[in-house]
From TrEMBL, chains A, B:
Region called Disordered, residue ranges: 379-403
Reactions the enzyme catalyzes: (sulfur carrier)-H + L-cysteine = (sulfur carrier)-SH + L-alanine
UniProt organism field: Streptomyces bingchenggensis (strain BCW-1)
CDD domains tied to this protein: SirA_YedF_YeeD
Designated name of the protein: Aminotransferase
Amino acid sequence: MPYFDAASSAPLHPVARQALLAALDEGWADPARLYREGRRARLLLDAAREAAAEAVGCRPDELTFTSSGTRALHDGIAGALAGRRRAGRHLVVSAVEHSAVLHAAAAHEAGGGTVSEVPVDSTGRIAPGGYAAALRDAPGPTALAALQSANHEVGTRQPVAEAAAECAEAGVPLLVDAAQSLAWGAVAGDWSLLTASAHKWGGPSGVGLLAVRKGVRFAAHGPADERESGRAPGFENIPAVVAAAASLRAVREESAAEAERLRELVDRIRTRVPRLIPDVEVVGDPERRLPHLVTFSCLYVDGETLLHELDRAGFSVSSGSSCTSSTLTPSHVLRAMGVLSEGNVRVSLPLGTLEEDVERFLGLLPDVVRRVRGQLGAPEQDEEVAARSAAPAAVSGPGGEEREDELVVDSLGKLCPIPVIELAKVIGDVPVGGLVTVLADDEAARLDIPAWCAMRGHEYVGERPADRGTAYRVRRRA
Amino acid sequence: MPYFDAASSAPLHPVARQALLAALDEGWADPARLYREGRRARLLLDAAREAAAEAVGCRPDELTFTSSGTRALHDGIAGALAGRRRAGRHLVVSAVEHSAVLHAAAAHEAGGGTVSEVPVDSTGRIAPGGYAAALRDAPGPTALAALQSANHEVGTRQPVAEAAAECAEAGVPLLVDAAQSLAWGAVAGDWSLLTASAHKWGGPSGVGLLAVRKGVRFAAHGPADERESGRAPGFENIPAVVAAAASLRAVREESAAEAERLRELVDRIRTRVPRLIPDVEVVGDPERRLPHLVTFSCLYVDGETLLHELDRAGFSVSSGSSCTSSTLTPSHVLRAMGVLSEGNVRVSLPLGTLEEDVERFLGLLPDVVRRVRGQLGAPEQDEEVAARSAAPAAVSGPGGEEREDELVVDSLGKLCPIPVIELAKVIGDVPVGGLVTVLADDEAARLDIPAWCAMRGHEYVGERPADRGTAYRVRRRA
């Protein structure tokens, strides 16, 4: 039963388990106490901090253990913004940050601050000079910039060192969300703050990292608390912290050996999925990416049904954003990239993934996709082609009658991918140059109709508000 | 090597350990995911919530798992205050709440709110009607009141049900900090919010509870996050949550059987320590108290040295407040009670404490205290008595000479208990009715000089600012 969702959470690493067990007996007491149980706990905590700091590439006194990666991001961003409140109230983030960053940004805006987003290209990568431009164009002095080391949905690595240099040039600290990449190595470049999450690398739940370089202004928000340098309130979770630090070291060693092997397995998926299955778009940067992660989208497929079918076949994968399945809105990452979100599948291989499991996945995927498409009544590729070839550049139909050169498809109340499927079914009914207007109220249509046009070579004319939902207009070009 | 500091953190309970181990394998995945690993994690989380809710006495959908008891308090108080922001900006707390509550109150004040403290008597208990009075006298409408179920330093139980009724009468929600008592039973009374911390009952670190009754207005603060009903951001720590819930049930069963036994062991300490050791004050309510906790203060003793000596003798105890050892300010709890803070020792017995260990503790304590007093040059009790009896009601000294009826002792720069020791050494040098002024800059003197006067039957005249430090004035009465 292969688990292919390591980017969401990795199973507990054996070293983490072992360290946790040992620390349960030695690390339960309050490390602030002076008696032997407290001193033992303190020793464990100090050793864990040293080990984790070494892996992060910072000094132990720069590193705080938080209760999760999300807390590290929320509190790291709030603390850096508060620390530089007098310098400015502007925050720069990329458009493809984790939702925890975007939510922290929204909270900053709600508190009177301003935020700007650095755009990405269709691979999900920020442009060179993107942060310099954002800092230049900011509505006021910038307090903080944030950038992920690699994207959690599509695996694209960001040019962190370049962005850090651009920020340093402007005197602005850069916070790097290293949640997805820390298992694969330290983050290069002159970052100011860094966050990570232990359960992503096979450490236990309940541990995040927040590194704040000496000299970076930081003001912890919320009620005072003396633990973890005042940056993470609450009793220290020492057994989990010990397990997190020990497993990070172990995983780093293994990942150095595994990177090439998993990169090759991912390349197989990247190459073969589009060959095996019609109308699939593999997204993300093919080279500058995490070794173990690949994302693709399947036209005319409902992501949730696809995940369900793959689960029944024994494969655990996820659908792009962790937001996707719970909020039912299309992934903000795919939207920022301007790519198809329909039938989105993220495969992220844990260390030790068997080649034969990847082959098995590739073997059954085409059938699963075909079945889901069949259930949804998606047009067979042949049908579409037939429809297209039956409609030449003239306005006369197959029967020689005059055909409408403008059609309206009412997909109101229908969830994606239905609006796109209905569009595909009628595109052949208008002549080349003719217009199809799709009325839809599913937010994903905004992303998927333009993406479908790009895949099919039609012109996406644009959208406008309709009495209900939105009218998306498409001009037939092929 | 007996560990007598269960109120600070309890060793991991065997049931917690077992549950944690099992859940490490089953509960590492994201419970929001739809695949089997996610569904398994979700099942574990749901079952843990049901078990914990039953132990708390609330509905499962009223219970949130936080990353610590401190977070539960910080976020519970902030959320309740924000939810009732339009109703009022006033917060009522008792003077002896945990520092996490007082820090949250300080943060509320810093944000423009107001706070009032309900006083306690010398046993650490709030008066009947105390919350009603505080609500009546509040400077504006009250948003929230908070009260601990039992005090963490002296073990005194608070009349929570009465306070809850007083709050309900005024339409104000009451938050109960049940950190110290939850292992001993559910909190009675009509509370609105309740918090607790798993490592206090032998559960793992990293788990707090926050219960919010349906109908209580609550607005989570900080960035949005969809986990734990939006009340506790970050990836759920399911193995720890499972262990916390399982051990709470187990501990409840054991504590019902252990309560009487530990209560009797604590009574031995309460009774015999003052008999075995001169100048000791046992503090806290002798009856309405936690079964396992007792606190006493030793005149002329430095708490930290005493703890150190007890640690060397194999006993792990703590000194009153968790603040005490790290911030070196006297415990706010003992201050609010108006009792001696000098040489403060808190003994809190874990479940299963052996009678013979308590006897051993009682056996060696007198020697340890005597040694510490000797090191500090404290007056022997006999000396003091001799000094007193050598100074009759007249102003003439033993040699028949006129004696000064006012003396000044300069204890500036000296830490407690030195100022009190120096006071005790000279009190016999003034006649009955004479005055001794102690100049001191250690904050503990403010508490310990009046407490010493009460213990010795002298009159504490008062304090006034001096050029350096504070001048404390004492009139000899015996």
